[in-house]
## 1
Amino acid sequence: MLFRQLEYLVALSRERHFARAAQACHVSQPALSEAVRKLEEELDVPLVLRGRAYEGLTPEGERIVVWARRILADRDALTSEVGALRDGLGGRIRIGAVPTASGAVARLTAPFCLAHPLVTVEVRADLSSEDVLRQLRSFEIDAGITYLREDLAEGFRSVPLYEERYVLLTDAADSLVHRTTATWAEAARLPLCLLTEAMQGRQVLDEVFAEVGVRPSPRVETDAVAALFAHVRTGRWASVVPHTWLHVFGVPHGMRAVPLVEPTRTVPVGLVTVARDPESVMARALTEVARRTDVAAALERLPGDPAPHPLQSGHGRPDVG
């Protein structure tokens, strides 16, 4: 059995198409098909459902591709460990993040790249919280930045980074712009553009709205925080956005960001990695950067505010897991 055969099987599972899998592996389709067929012979089980086109993996194939990802991840971890001992850390680290946390990713990648100049960073910033954990389990990413839920499954380690809080983003001509705060009940009465209901960032908002006894009726829903800003810019909509995104876009001209109160709700966000021994050298290096970087302090002050917001972020809690 060769690593190459396992790589081809993983690519086929990911691409769900022989030609695309071959292209991703930089080989011909016949070469990939033959390598997968030989792997089936060696394991003595069918791995692929074959018809006129790719139809999926067999139940045996689904189980074996999990092992294939783990074996390849261990190979990559070993290669990185040896390379770090010889020349310093190098290679590629893959970070997955929920959309609302992507504005904070740079607070880690900047010091990480400074400490490890030979490493290339790949950021996948449009994942759901479930996708982050799933891709960690399947070794598709090395680390994730997501909500730290109380029911975070065993098998993960986490480092708290900051507490996500929320602001009402409105047109500068709105009647609320002269206020220093706005309530969730007041926000619910505005024409809103919000994230889609399937996203955990939206589910957090809906929980708070329900807590105060209101149910917003957004006319526009999107899966991109950038689209929220674009709609508010038209002057027809308001939105509720995490404060971290103000550090990406600032408060654009013609808009105003007002902290939401009654209640003041925060949700912990942190770095999550797979609990494995030995730990991936990439995950370990990023975890070390996260522990010594005060992300919460950097995000505490809203752009344009003369003084930090009084809400304490909660940074500095002990590691979880």
Note: The first helix runs from residue 3 to 15.
## 2
Amino acid sequence: MVLSYDIGAFCAHGMIEVQTRHDGPLAGLTFGVKDLFDVAGVPTGAGSPDWLATHPVPQASAPAVQCLLDAGARMVGKTQTDEIAWSLNGQNHHYGTPVNPAAPGRIPGGSSSGSAAATAAGLVDFALGSDTGGSVRLPASYCGLYGMRPTHGRISISGAVPLAPSYDSVGWFARDAELLSRVGRALLPDAGPAAPVSRMLVADDLFGLAGDAVSTALAPAIAQVENLIGRAGHADLADGRLTEWRDAFRLIQSSEVWETHGDWVTRVGPAFGPGIGDRFAAAAKLDPGQIEVARRLREAVRACLADIVPPGTLLVIPTAPGIAPLLSSTEVELEAFRARALALLCAAGHAGMPQISLPMATLEGCPLGLSVIAARGQDEALLDLAVSLAAPEADHGRA
């Protein structure tokens, strides 16, 4: 198979095909692997030339990669990521920005940028990514894809370069719901059937943060979900504390990033691009007292969401506060948008809950995702919902 470099989705050092089986539930399908995951005999670059130069070639593949190979899928290359996966934009100072095939002239989102771009362009059937603060969910919204972040810890993320381990999750993209579900069944350990879904809630405060344009664009998609589940109830998740939730995520994430990579950064002095270097510099100077306060808040958020979203209930939120920003956006504009996005995305991260982004709307001619969150361990309920919504008899009604 000849892959195009035109969209910048693949890593030059990871252009290799791997297939270990020709049968299985994913036989005949191709996939890309975010260059955060180890593939035996292939360098792992983590979006950083300095990481690539200072780490040995892995001798074993990450369990998630091996699982997909064992299911019969064929890996066709490693895909670009933002540096050390610490960005939501999809822009890499060293390797460039993959094209967003669904919205040319706009960012693809990150950090799983290459996986999203390759899937959206049809260069692979599906792709593996990782999601800490939104790195699968946000690119899925920007690129018009299905994107899944599972229950934290349910799929092993060992063999991948960590970012913030208490949030890091394996994730994946597909262009259609049925394939997203098939990949999920291969990756997810069997936990028995999910609880029957009997209730849905709309998070009014998160839609308020996203704004009127996003809320209006997603209204027909919410109606489709209601057609399946029943009339939605409404909830105010954060009681006016969304900014505090977001800031707690940032503090905990930054502390874990420095704990994980601080020694390497100090020893190697990597040449980070704009934004990434600033985050590492700030992470080195965090106040331990503030981190502890943030961790206590996370526990409160986890308890709150477990109460609001028990098994059998689904929570509907906007994936993003808008469509993908323009490539010409300034650093200030991108950072402001990132801050709003994190306020939406941090809820599932704090709670360790699964979240799926569904490509059910457009705004200004660009994709816009609707997200659904389920209780921990109820990942299959989200995959089943996506398949039901995409069924031929369902009214797609895209905005």
Note: Confidence is low (pLDDT under 50) at residues 1-5.
## 3
Amino acid sequence: MAIEGDTKAKNMVEEINSMIKDDEKYSIVENKIVGYFIENHELYFKDFKEDINYLKDCRNKCAHLKVDDNTLYVPNDYQARMLICSMYDNILSVKAPFILDLFSFVETDVESYANAVFYYPGREIEENIKNNIKKKYLSRMTYNSLCKSYKTFIKLNFISDDVECRNNASGLYVFIIAMTEFIIKKGHSEIFKEESILEIFSRINIDNLKDDNIKFSMLVDIITNFPVIMEIIKMDNELLTFIADKVLSDPRELGKYKYFYPSGEKTANQWFKDNSSLQDPCYIKDIFDTLKDERDFDINEFIIIMIKSVPSYYGFDSADSFMIFFKLHYREFSDDTIERVMDEYYKNDQCINRSRHDDDIKEIEEILKENSEK
């Protein structure tokens, strides 16, 4: 801590070194060190006061080796092992100063990231931002402190109605992403099975998400990027259905079907065919790119569905998008399909009254003529 610039720690190190140089009793030095951490990091060390006192007592007895009834003092093997494990897990495997409740340390950083990081659905947080959080804060946390802090951040971002939480949602989201990655990489995935974590996720309900698109999109990004969180959400079938239906009603999000129903009875292509709201020609290229590798996808069937979906009112943009795609993939369609498409095309005024109609038809006729000559 002193090396990293902590002034209090630096002063304490100098005082301790001076005490050792003056041959001060080890027990007094020990008390000085323990007292420093209890005074300056009480939230963390209060959970270990009994362990530390027991450890000091054991060390004192072992150091003096007084003979009592012809036997030497030997610490209880089981307790000694548990103390060593506790020391490693909670002290030696994390960097000081130790963090018990992350949010109390990072409120300023949360606000800074909220101002610096503009969130939008699907945004990936830069690696340098996540790495900075992991190095500066998460490396100083134990299993228990990560568990407690993760619960706090989920609560603040997805459950709280506090205005400050909403204003700083992007900052909270950055920390949640960094923490989720860190927990998984550290091998602490059991945190996601802890009762306190399952309980806080269970409090995320439809009312929390219905009127808050940012909160909704952040949750979708988390559950589609981290399968372990998706498994938690799946415990609430009503919530999962609400999220899935809302996400998959957008043709641009059809690629997320596999996250919600990885082993469902329907394929993504069948879901598309069963939901007319997804059959939007404006997004024909995006939909095709999502479905083209599905085992039951048929491009001839697909193009018929899309031409029939061009609106009969305010459909110029839809017709333009359809024709761009149709011309690009023209050679992939059967003759019967082309005939049916053109029949539907000429029935729709939104297709034939477009400014691009003559040019499109001329181009198609040239392709037809070229094919017939072959």
Note: The mean pLDDT is 89.
## 4
Amino acid sequence: MTVRGGSARSFGVAVALIAGITLGNGGANVMPVFVDDFASRFGLSESGAGLVAASQLLATAVVTLLLAERAARPGRVRMTRFGLALSGAGFLGATAASSPVTLVLANLVLGAGLGAVYAAGTAALAATDDADKASAVTITGTVAVTALLIMGVPAADHGLGPGTGFLLMALCCLLAWPLTRRLPDGPAVPSAPEAGPAGRTKRTAARPSVVLLLGAALLWAVTQGAWSYASVLGRRHTGMSPSAVSAVLAVSSVVALAGAVAGPVAARRFGRMRSMAVFVTAQALAMAALVLTHDPVFFTVAAVLWQTCQLAVLVQMLAAAALIDPTGRLVASLSGAAALGTGTGPPAVGAVLDAAGADILGLALALGTFVASLPLLRMTVAGTQAAAERGLTPPSAAETG
């Protein structure tokens, strides 16, 4: 079945979007658990485990960027299912890996497959009739399923043996196959702008600026780097057990669903740029607090606040990109750049943690978040203007002056 457009209120479309984006970004979201598995199963150092993680995340990023333009055209369901098959094979390879070399090769394969799934899934967000609602519903569902995976993968490792968490991920790829059939498809993109009714041009794929892509990459390098070592930092600094830290991270992800709801509401009430600036600031401070604190309660509070603000920022970024470019290429490109950041983040954070310690790391993460947000804040203003021009949402007083 080919779905040319999707309603944000359609259950089948919502399930397809959630399945595609959850699996496409599954490697990054479950990476804290994977890093612990890499280190314990093969006796790797923190930086060594980060390099294995980077092989998967960089493969996802490169493939997502390469397929961003293709994802703006018809054939998203076929692309998604090809990616699911490839990543499923990679997860099985990671389960059976007997050395760091075979583990890296398996992660490259599964990362490439996840990149195809992620490109198609994120581009499909722009094909819905309400970008804000579709982004909020999709991110909410993705976070809920990811929280289950964060608890399920280590449970499989501890209960059935090291590496079996990857087998669970392979099973998820199989289960997602029939769920993606309602993924909204893309339009046939013309080679040049064509005149439409009332002198308007038809939809064409937008080419994002390098600065915008670098901003998205840096923001998610900082975010994913901190997230990948959140479990390690929690165990070392607070004295919590691995299962307790995993539970805290899973609970923080679920409670943070409020951010997916608060993001669109705050954008309508206070303006996209102003509300996103507040969320970015709170995210940076909470991230630094999580790295620096030695108190379990403060660690938990910081994790919840960080994840809540991160979701609010993510929903606003995806919605703005979908409004600017309804073909989905801009959303997929930003997602690819973000995936590139997630690939470089873990080894960079691991290196800083090994060389300079947690205090310097916390300050670097906060500063990186502020710098990376600048081009994204500018994009949110363009998204508000695009929505106003298409008559979807009225411009707020905060951005019209």
Note: The chain has a mean pLDDT of 81.
